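Why do we bother with holo predictions? Because pocket geometry can differ from the apo form. Keep that in mind while you read this record for zinc ion.
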Amino acid sequence: MKGNDRMAVKNLKCKECSTEYELGANFFCAECFGPLEVRYDYSGLNPEETRRRIQAGSRGIWRYADFLPFDGKAGDPLEPGMTPLIKADRLSDRLGTGAEIYIKNDAANPTHSFKDRVVAVAIAKAKELGFETVACASTGNLANAVAAHAAAAGLDSYVFVPSNLEEQKLLATDIYGTNLVGVNGNYDDVNRLCTQLADEKPWAFVNVNLRPYYAEGSKTLAYETVEQLGWSLPDRVVAPIASGSLFTKISRGFQEWKEIGLVDGEHPVFHGAQAEGCSPVATAFAEGSRVCRPQKPDTIAKSLAIGDPADGPYAVVQANETGGSIDAVNDDRIREGIRLLAETTGIFTETAGGVTVGVLKKLAERGELNDGEKVVVYITGEGLKTLDANRDSFALTEIEPTPDSFESKFGQEVVA
Ligand SMILES: *Cc1c(COP(=O)(O)O)cnc(C)c1O
Ligand SMILES: [Zn+2]
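The structure, written out:
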């Protein structure tokens, strides 16, 4: 029994003025131009039954069907989710904190970033709504995910990216047979173009006209965290912010499960992470404002380089309401974060993960992590996609193929 009669998804609702809309390819409010969000009615969900249904479900995100925006059954052949949650004791030690740090390694998804979650949901919705072509405006990882999931679903795809993207991300998108479009401009230019095209083309732009559904996919990160912590909440989380969608939706996931009684306890404290070279949300937080003034990005963390973040104001509110913060780190701190995570956990993350670990380190330095508390750090992408980031600190020790040569470079000083 899939429990379709219990499906809770209701409609779309404006986040600013609460006007309600039908569940179609709508994404902004006709009254106030505010963003739309999917609403649910969970009053029919019994916590015990829901928990049993989740545990009997598939291994990935589709086990959370009750909390995703579909009337019927959804699924996909490239199912993301249930990525590892690892207790990182050596990282805690290196940071000199008594907090229990957990790494949620979302690089372990099918195209090696958390974007598989949001894209799987958006493409399932695109199919349900009858679209035959999907598209996206991407900072890199979304490109990989849309191209792959479109291929898996047998849909045509158009992927728009800034033309100066990391080569690894371009190559790993083109391989899926998508129409890869390199736009001479930054992400905000790409996004503007895609918003114009979404008006003209009968296409599902996963993060433009299907954005309300896309955003729902990020809630699954919260659900998995709760399950992996033995149906309990973390005390604190650290997550990266580009548009602010991931950050606010992880929070929504925890909140929903508290509301229906699947988990008890205090809502976790939320810390957001940005790169200094693109930190409109951290800047707004520091100024005590929710207005994110647009910025021209200049950072090695290209996957977070959104200068005009749609959900930035909600991310600021989120950090404030939970007693958290939003910090930014510079490129050197990002590189250092990548190396620190790799050396202490064996996990190689991309620059976005370096931003997140860099901010975690800042929090530890400021004494904001408490002894014994559980801190979950969301690592959202894979290091092989941004190999150049740490090239400057790379050195290869070359030797001749002889033991003497090895000893001369690596051996102990021999005292004759
Ligand atoms: C897209 C992305 C994010 C955050 O995206 P939001 O727009 O804030 O939802 C974080 N990390 C990586 C690696 C990403 O690709
Ligand atoms: Zn409105």
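The longest strand covers residues 156-162.
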